[in-house]
Amino acid sequence: MAGGGEEPFAPSALGTRPHWDAAYERELQAFQETGDAGEIWFGEESMIRIIRWLEKQKVPLDSSVLDIGTGNGVLLIELAKNGFTNLTGIDYSPSAIQLSEKVREKEGVSNIKLLVEDFLAPSAELLGFHICIDKGTFDAVSLNPDNAVGKRKQYVRSLCSVLKPEGFFLITSCNWTKEELLNEFREGFEIVEELPTPKFCFGGRIGNSVTALVFQRKK
Fold first, then answer.
1. For the chain, which end, N or C, has fewer CB atoms within 10 Å of the first or last residue's CB respectively?
2. How far is residue 163's CA from residue 57's CA, in Å, rounded to a whole number?
């Protein structure tokens, strides 16, 4: 799918900031009216999968964790409930950060830092993270109508700048296969583990609709 400089996906509004601003403005309105935090990307099992892996690896609870494209911030809430204390969420949509702040307030969690940040142009504040997590943000970057190839490469550069050497990067994707992600992150990262995801069967072939991988930044 993703070879050389080719665009592997058709451009989509899902890859643009106005789409996400509008989506999170709607979710923010809904939260204020009903208290519903909105959609959990890839479902609750995707959060459980990440938390179980961190626990299995005995990742210290004070490790610095960055949620890239935090949306409603629910993943960070779950990490906090599981004892993690050094949590940061970023999103380039101010509406998403407003929503995640309100969810954080409702849940009574104080040890989550939330920032309006474009990961493709990270501020100097985003440095030295032990763990970076992405659930769907790289997918959205890949759909940007304006030079998606260049933006994917910038994503990898940004990841190298914010993640400590030997830090872990956990990515969940519905657009990319394991082999394609290995290719996208081949510079600066090595695969640690593929996490189990739900399988489907179609026409006698078994496959995964979601890919979840753990990378480690090289020294």
1. C
2. 18
